[in-house]
Structure formats: structure tokens, C-alpha cells
Amino acid sequence: MSKPATNTSTSNAASYNQIGSGITALASGYASLQASSMQARQFKMEGVFLGLQREQEKLKGRENAIFLRQKFLNNIASSTASFAARGVSTGSGIGRQMAIQGLKTLGEDIKAVELNSEAAQIQLGLKQSQSKLNERITRNIGIMRAGNSFGSGSESLLTGFSTIKTGDKNGE
């Protein structure tokens, strides 16, 4: 004896809803995977830009040190000319003391510039490392979320198809 048609159509409707739910869950998993992939790419690009900034900072530190050396040489040349015009020797006495003090100050200034540059490079390097970590974490979270959605979606699809198949056998 066959079951009434209303039970079969209600059962089929529930099965189709189950299949629809499965498809929606699979699409949600795929969307989650794509969204996390896009965000991970943004973190990767941020890391690339931070690496470029780090290299720029290194060059900036070198340029500043070169500028200070050039400025020192210009000051020495100017002092030498000024002392020579007055008949003062720059190889001894006050001229020599000024050159020694100038070299000492130059060394301190260059060291300060280098330390500031190194500190900025370290800070940018830390930000770059954080960006790489964020990229990996974002990808992994996306994979986990997608895995959950794929699992529940597959289960819903299988349940829906199984119910339809069982319903077809019972309806025959």
C-alpha cells in the first residue's frame, strides 16, 4: 500500500529545503574562504610596503650621515680659510682643537642618526612581521570557517538527497 501523496510531497519539500540549505552553506563556506583570502592578500601587500619603507629608512639614515660628513668638511674648509686669512695655523693651537672637537661632534651626530635609523628599521621590521602573522592567521581562520560550512553543507545535501531517494523507494 502506498502512502498518501501529501506526505510524499511534504517529505520532498523538506528534502528540497535541506538541499537548499546545504547549497547555501557551501556557498557561505566558499564566500568565507574568498573573503579571508582577500584580507590575507591585503596583509601581504602591507608587509611588502613595510619592507620597502624599511629599506627607505636605511637609505635615509645613510643619506643623513653623508650630509653630516659633507657639512663637517664644508665647516672645516671654511674655518681653514678664515684662519688662514688671519694668519692662524689650523695644524696647531685653536685651529687644531676646533677640528678635533668638530670631529668628535660629527661622530656623535652620525651615531645618533644611525641609531635613529636603526630604531625606525626595527620598528618597521616588527610591523612587517606582525603583518605576515596576520596574513597567516587570517588564511587559517578562513579555512576553518569554510571547513565548518563545507561540512554542514555537505551533510545537508546528503541528508536531502538521501531523503528524496528513500521517499522515491517508499512511494513506488
Strand runs, count: 0
Domains counted in the coordinates: how many?
A: 1
Distance between the termini: 9 Å
Number of continuous helical runs: 2
SSE order: HH
Low-confidence stretches: none
Q: How many whole angstroms does the radius of gyration measure?
A: 37 Å
* Average pLDDT number: 86
Q: Globular, elongated, flat, extended or rod-shaped: what is the shape?
A: rod-shaped
* Largest β-sheet summary: none
**Assembly form of the protein:** single chain
Strand content: under 5%
* Helix percentage range: over 70%
Class based on secondary structure composition and strand pairing: mainly alpha
Describe the structure.
There is one protein chain. This protein has helices at residues 5-86, 93-171. Helix 1 packs antiparallel against helix 2. It is built from 2 helices and no strands. It starts with a helix and ends with a helix. The chain has one domain (19-171).
List the helices and strands and how they pair.
Elements: H1 5-86, H2 93-171
Helix pairs in contact: 1-2
Quick structural overview:
The protein is an all-alpha fold. The protein is built from 2 helices and no strands.
Keywords:
single chain, mainly alpha, rod-shaped
